From TrEMBL:
Membrane-spanning ranges: 28-47, 67-87, 141-163
Designated name of the protein: PTS system, glucitol/sorbitol-specific IIC component
Keywords: Membrane, Transmembrane, Transmembrane helix
UniProt record, GO biological process: phosphoenolpyruvate-dependent sugar phosphotransferase system
Entry GO CC: membrane
Lineage: Bacteria, Bacillati, Bacillota, Tissierellia, Tissierellales
Top-rank taxon: Bacteria
Pfam families: EII-GUT
């Protein structure tokens, strides 16, 4: 019977801990996220959605802007998952690589701009909690995470673009030989 009682206490304790975490989020990070989301949406409205879209179209011009600037702007302004819609400005051959870059950036941006992917904030906060308890600055890890994210999305964009080009070439050759 003791084992059953301990199991029941553990089970309820799990939900009590979840409730405490939830209350901490409601009184801590959620108000910040709401203000950040409102701020970013206000900027997009003030600048104009058409201007933001024109800027995105120009960003597809070269490999650096296509796989660094465009994904960063998309994730920052439109947040996850709407950021993938920026892919509509790209030629078909670049869309898979843009998606790969954008989806790879929704995590690294979280430390500096939590509004961009609030669902991942819990993962980031879980990682940084250990660092915080050890007395490390969270600003430094957020900046490093962001910079490494930029490098990774650029590499992933290039690699995926190369793979996509090869696959499209093979498909074209296979269709031509029929």
């Amino acid at each position: 019977m003791d084992a059953l009682a301990r199991a029941a206490e553990w089970f309820i304790g799990l939900f009590q801990q979840g409730g405490e975490t939830f209350v901490g989020q409601v009184t801590g990070i959620l108000p910040t996220l709401i203000v950040l989301i409102t701020f970013v949406n206000s900027i997009v409205k003030l600048v104009g959605e058409e201007k933001v879209q024109r800027l995105a179209q120009k960003a597809t011009g070269n490999i650096f802007t296509r796989y660094i600037i465009l994904p960063v702007l998309a994730v920052f302004f439109l947040t996850n998952p709407m950021c993938y819609t920026f892919g509509k400005f790209l030629d078909e051959k670049y869309k898979p690589a843009f998606y790969d870059a954008a989806v790879s950036f929704v995590h690294p941006i979280t430390g500096l701009f939590p509004h961009a992917n609030p669902a991942e904030l819990f993962v980031y906060l879980g990682i940084t909690e250990g660092l915080r308890q050890l007395g490390y600055s969270l600003g430094g890890i957020a900046i490093r995470y962001f910079i490494v994210g930029l490098i990774v999305i650029f590499i992933r964009g290039i690699v995926t673009e190369i793979i996509t080009a090869r696959m499209m070439k093979r498909r074209y050759q296979a269709e031509s030989s029929k």
